[in-house]
Design a protein that fits this description.
The complex is a heterotrimer of chains A (332), B (89) and C (504). With 332 residues, chain A is mostly helical. Chain A has one domain (78-327): Ribonucleotide Reductase, subunit A (Orthogonal Bundle), CATH 1.10.620.20. Helices cover 68% and strands 1% of the residues of chain A. Chain A starts with a strand and ends in a 5-residue tail after the last helix. Helices cover 25% and strands 43% of the residues of chain B. Chain B contains 3 helices and 7 strands, in the order E-H-E-E-E-H-H-E-E-E. Chain B has helices at 15-24, 49-56, 65-68, and strands spanning 3-9, 29-33, 36-42, 44-48, 69-73, 75-78, 82-86. With 504 residues, chain C is mainly α. Chain C has one domain (49-496): Ribonucleotide Reductase, subunit A, CATH 1.10.620. Chain C contains 21 helices and 5 strands. Chain C has helices spanning 12-19, 32-35, 60-83, 95-123, 127-155, 164-170, 175-186, 189-209, 211-218, 222-252, 256-285, 293-312, 323-329, 333-343, 357-366, 371-387, 436-444, 446-449, 455-460, 468-474, 489-501, and strands at residues 411-412, 415-419, 422-426, 429-433, 502-503. In chain C, strands 1-2 form a two-stranded antiparallel ribbon. In chain C, helix 11 (256-285) crosses helix 14. Chain C starts with 11 loop residues before the first helix and ends with a strand. Classes of the chains: A mainly alpha (332), B alpha+beta (89), C mainly alpha (504). At the A-C interface, strand 1, helix 2, helix 3, helix 4 and helix 5 of A face helix 3, helix 4, helix 5, helix 6 and helix 7 of C. Strand 1 of chain A pairs antiparallel with strand 5 of chain C.
Chain lengths: 332, 89, 504
């Protein structure tokens, strides 16, 4: 007997799973993102209370001051599920790998002006510790947030931060071998420029409201840091100083930031649109953290840019962040 | 002595890897099951990069093993040249 | 500092240390206890987090690269499977029960593991285990998703798949795996790692993912086989993490040894009880068999497990408590579970059946000391009822074990003719158990296990109040998804479609 299964056309019984039909109807076959994301987290009849915090539920929407009728409204516009996420990053990694090769084969680092090297060392390499903090913070949001569409991108974001920390480490090894990383760690631990930021991150690592951590880390801090360090300093200032060998190695960070802004803004906007109460809480978080991190980042920026220029840069980026907040519905 | 093993998906990518493991571990036993191939040995099994490279005629990164690895048993020691599985008893 | 220093070539170990370990710092503005509030309360003492050894030193660049390659391969296979009516390649549609159980019971566990590992990936106070756990967390969501995607195609043609999300939280038998994962997640970070990383991953997942998935391939289901093997390749990393974790705890302080042993005892038993479902999948639900549960247990349980515990003996760790009870049960559990599923088949979103003549021959051969003597007569009784136009059902509700949540259907370890039943009284209430192992687990932490959500009492309470039809609606159980495979729509459709595509 031979079986030729390819030729027949068999009528389908079900277009989709019931939970997706309930959300999206069954006119359209759901996407793999929808199948991979919606209603995956258990919601009821949870068996035991956490022994680490018996007042909480195992999945507990009340860990945050933010309230959502449906946490699955917080869709990721990039529609990342594991596969699309991994394939996207693998492609970017391939580009970065060839960037590293180019820089090495053309000796671009050795030929950099001292001033550029100094800025890279003083400003960029210590940032790997900032990424580590963000890695932990996003892991917390994934672990304790509510609803898969909100929590899933956070583990991707956490791993991205680890990846960025590792790109920065490779850059450090290229410009000054292991010593570069050691010096950067010393700076991070002791130098005046970095202490306010380190203190703020240690404070943020003590916060347990997953949305508060998400907003302060991903919207506010990254929303100031990436435009300052990567868009302004690495891609403009260092280029002007002849530092293309550096900017080619921070390309991932620039692109990654642009990509993640869509997601972060969309989450913020959806939460703010949900209720005036949410909006008030978000305004309080964004407003206070934006002012705080702006002042904290000033001495960091001053490592690369002198005097008034640093002030201007920081206030320009602060305004940009507030424009994003306003587009998301805050402070209006 | 306890048995250590490594199980790989049975496909064209793993055929030379299994050949390499057999060369480096003459006492190892190779067992074919549907869609998978298991290589086991008493106490110790070593997978060497150089031998694989000779088999496939190109450079091989030990971490490429991840792609077709199904499972393993034993304490793992991996560096750029080899993956070693051992039981201490 | 001399900035322009020529970089040395670093080996993998050094590189990994610099790329990962070196990222963390000792906080000075805040107390570590504020940042890591949950690392102490279980009593595990860690003196030096940097002693953690990571055997697979994957940096993110390599992770993305190799995982993407796995993903490309996997989705190519399931796309082809969907386009070419791959579902008609399975040996026969009885097989689908195994993967329905998988989707309803195991995939939600993968998801729970994803969230649990994210939590411990945040709570451990050392960057080595943090990163290893985060990587496991992201892998676990991969497993949940690839499984849903593989099953999505089967869902288009067969019953019993479409309501898995609802059934995860409500139907009685999914409470078995969910209580297992809820138990682990509600424990502290170290116990979680022993539960999932060590006991489940290292000791038990081989039994789930290796012989069963090889069986899936043998039965023509390349989609399932591929997610199984592809997932297990991540498990190889996870198992190694589990083993490193346990060695790390044992080496850090001798006071940790009895705590770890207690967890091994508990989670080995919990895991073995959970795997009784896999035993039934292996022995009854693969129409073509690769090996019996007994044979799989001998290789991956006895041989591999013993090797592991002999290795750990140097730390003062012994074989898990109740190991002998498990060993004694191996020739029985698959039959006991399948008979149980068959008699309660009106309440399951998958089909069960009475074994065919050739199944019976195989079961006799593989279980020479138990099957014919203890279980064949019961199957024959069910078969005779069917032949007389009746159906063997047990409309009495099973009494569930307070710990593992399986019906109390197992026998005494030393007397296969006696059902085992244990009771503990706690704060004036009586609690029932299927075994010494489950009673022991309860007695160690009664305050925890009294909280268990038991699906059978839920059926009797408001708002359902024992109304079976209302219950079926509440758990999204359609009659077409339940019952004997012999009379099922799945069977009729599969045979009809197969006929359409077959040529002599």
């Amino acid at each position: 007997m031979q079986i030729d299964v390819q030729t027949v056309n068999i009528e389908q019984k079900n277009q989709t799973f019931t939970h997706l039909k309930r959300r999206f109807g069954d006119k359209k076959i759901p996407s793999r993102y929808q199948e991979a994301s919606y209603d995956l987290q258990a919601t009821e009849n949870l068996h035991y209370r956490p022994t680490w915090a018996p007042e909480q539920e195992l999945y507990d929407p009340n860990l945050s001051k933010i309230r959502m009728t449906d946490w699955y409204d917080l869709k990721d516009p990039r529609q990342f599920y594991y596969s699309t996420y991994t394939l996207t990053r693998a492609r970017q990694q391939e580009t970065m790998e060839s960037n590293f090769k180019t820089v090495e084969s053309l000796n671009l680092i050795e030929n950099l002006p001292d001033q550029v090297l100094k800025i890279a060392q003083d400003l960029l390499i210590p940032l790997r510790h900032v990424n580590y903090a963000s890695n932990l913070n996003n892991t917390l949001v994934c672990g304790y947030g509510y609803g898969t569409v909100f929590t899933q991108p956070c583990i991707y974001h956490a791993m991205d931060n680890l990846g960025i920390a590792q790109y920065l480490s490779r850059l450090g090894l290229m410009i000054g071998d292991v010593e570069s990383l050691e010096v950067a760690k010393q700076d991070w631990m002791n130098s005046d420029a970095w202490q306010p930021l380190r203190r703020s991150l240690e404070d943020l690592m003590c916060v347990r409201d997953p949305v508060e951590v998400f907003i302060k880390q991903n919207f506010v801090l990254d929303g100031l840091l990436y435009p300052l360090v990567y868009q302004r300093i690495a891609d403009k200032h260092l280029l002007e100083l002849g530092g293309s060998g550096i900017s080619i190695l921070t390309q991932f960070m620039t692109n990654w930031y642009q990509e993640s802004v869509r997601w972060v803004d969309s989450v913020l906007k959806t939460m703010a649109d949900e209720s005036p109460q949410n909006k008030a809480v978000l305004e309080e978080w964004v407003g206070s953290a934006a002012n705080h991190f702006t002042s904290v980042l000033l001495p960091v920026v001053a490592l690369a840019v002198q005097g008034n220029d640093a002030d201007e840069l920081v206030s320009e980026v602060h305004d940009e962040l507030m424009t994003r907040a306003s587009k998301a519905g805050l402070f209006r | 002595m306890s048995t250590v093993f490594i199980i790989l998906q049975a496909n064209e990518d793993t055929r030379p890897i299994v050949d390499a493991i057999e060369q480096d571990n003459p006492l190892a036993e190779v067992i074919h099951e549907p869609a998978m191939v298991k290589v086991q040995a008493e106490g110790r099994l070593v997978v060497r990069r150089e031998t694989i490279e000779e088999e496939i005629g190109r450079e091989f990164d030990m971490q490429e093993l991840n792609i077709n690895l199904i499972t393993l048993s034993g304490n793992v020691d991996e560096d750029e040249d080899a993956l070693t599985l051992t039981w201490n008893s | 500092m001399d900035i322009k220093k020529t970089p040395r070539k670093l080996n993998v170990k050094e590189k990994y240390r610099l790329m990962t370990r070196d990222l963390a710092w000792e906080p000075s503005y805040r107390d570590e206890k504020e940042i890591y509030p949950y690392v102490d309360y279980e009593g595990i003492k860690i003196h030096d987090w940097s002693k953690w050894e990571d055997p697979f030193r994957l940096t993110m660049d390599a992770y993305w690269k190799y995982q993407a390659e796995k993903e490309r391969k996997y989705y190519a296979i399931i796309d082809a499977h969907a386009q070419n009516n791959g579902h008609l390649n399975v040996t026969d549609a009885r097989y689908l029960t195994a993967i329905k159980l998988f989707l309803q019971g195991i995939s939600p566990g993968e998801y729970a593991a994803h969230r649990g590992f994210a939590r411990v990936g945040r709570e451990f106070a050392g960057v080595g285990p943090q990163v290893a756990c985060q990587m496991q967390s992201i892998d676990e969501i991969r497993h949940a998703q690839t499984q849903v995607h593989a099953m999505s195609n089967y869902n288009k043609y067969y019953n019993g798949f479409k309501d898995f999300a609802q059934q995860r939280d409500r139907i009685w038998y999914t409470s078995v795996p969910r209580s297992f994962f809820d138990d682990a997640m509600s424990a502290g970070p170290f116990e979680f790692l022993i539960a999932i990383g060590f006991s489940f991953e290292y000791v038990l997942t081989n039994l789930l993912f290796v012989p069963f998935m090889s069986g899936a391939a043998y039965n023509g289901d390349m989609a399932t086989c591929t997610f199984g093997f592809s997932a297990q390749s991540d498990e190889a990393r996870h198992m190694t993490l589990g083993l490193e974790c346990i060695k790390f705890m044992l080496e850090q302080d001798p006071a940790n040894i009895p705590i770890v042993q207690k967890w091994i005892d508990k989670w080995f038993w919990r895991g073995c009880r959970l795997l009784t479902l896999v035993a039934a999948m292996m022995d009854y639900m693969l129409p073509k068999r690769v090996m019996s549960w007994r044979e799989a247990w001998n290789i991956y349980g006895v041989e591999n497990g013993n090797a592991l515990f002999r290795d750990l003996a140097r730390y003062g760790i012994r074989q898990p408590m109740h190991w002998d009870d498990v060993e004694k049960s191996i020739d029985h559990t698959s039959h006991q579970i399948m008979l149980g599923l068959y008699q309660w088949k009106f309440g399951t979103a998958f089909h069960s059946w009475t074994p065919t003549a050739s199944d019976i021959e195989w079961l006799k051969e593989k279980y020479p000391t138990t099957f014919e003597q203890y279980y064949l007569p019961r199957w024959e009784y069910a078969i005779a009822q069917k032949e007389a136009g009746g159906e063997y059902n047990n409309f009495g509700l099973p009494k569930l074990c307070q710990t593992c949540q399986l019906p109390c259907l197992f026998t005494e370890p030393d007397d296969p003719t006696q059902l085992a039943h244990r009771e503990t009284e706690f704060e004036g209430e009586k609690y029932h158990f299927c075994s010494d192992g489950c009673q022991h687990v309860f007695d160690q932490e009664p305050e925890k296990y009294v909280q268990a959500w038991l699906p059978m009492p839920a059926l009797m309470q408001a708002p359902l109040k024992g109304d079976l039809a209302a219950w079926m609606e509440w758990v999204s159980l359609e009659p077409t998804a339940a019952g004997d495979y012999a009379n099922s729509e799945d069977k009729a459709n599969f045979e009809k479609w197969r006929k359409q595509v077959s040529t002599d």
